[in-house]
Design a protein that fits this description.
- With 140 residues, this protein is mainly beta.
- It has one domain: Peptide methionine sulfoxide reductase (Metal Binding Protein, Guanine Nucleotide Exchange Factor, Chain A).
- It is built from two helices and nine strands; from the N terminus they run ααβββββββββ.
- The chain has a six-stranded antiparallel beta sheet, with no helix packed on it. A three-stranded antiparallel beta sheet has the order 2-1-9, with no helix packed on it.
- A hairpin with a 7-residue loop joins strand 3 and strand 4.
- It is globular.
Length: 140
Amino acid sequence: MSEQNPPVQRSEEEWRAILDPEAFAVLRLGATEPPWSGEYVSTTAQGVYRCRACGAELFRSEHKFDAQCGWPSFYDPVDSSAVTLHEDLSHGMVRTEVRCARCGSHLGHVFYGEGYPTPTDARYCINSIALTLEAEDTVE
């Protein structure tokens, strides 16, 4: 973490105070929003996607693609240090969980080798509720 983006550590009580119940369930408890329900699934606006919990820059719109999976999909994070990857053995599957490197919030999962025509062969399948979009006209 850089001095500009120091790690964010809060108690469960503090997270509950700043996140609505749905965002808390996804970001802090690892839940998943229902497919096709999130505000960024079909968004084509240009800009920066940030962590809803701490504001860290995670993804840019130029790395977003339409995977037709029900959640916003990106082929690469803005920086390899923006997210951390963790083995997830829940629900009887082996997956790779994606978390915000700054605050540890659950964002979604990353999948490889699905055949999408992207430069990285990766699909970061991210919950809309885990993100905020800073539109390009407001990005410095």
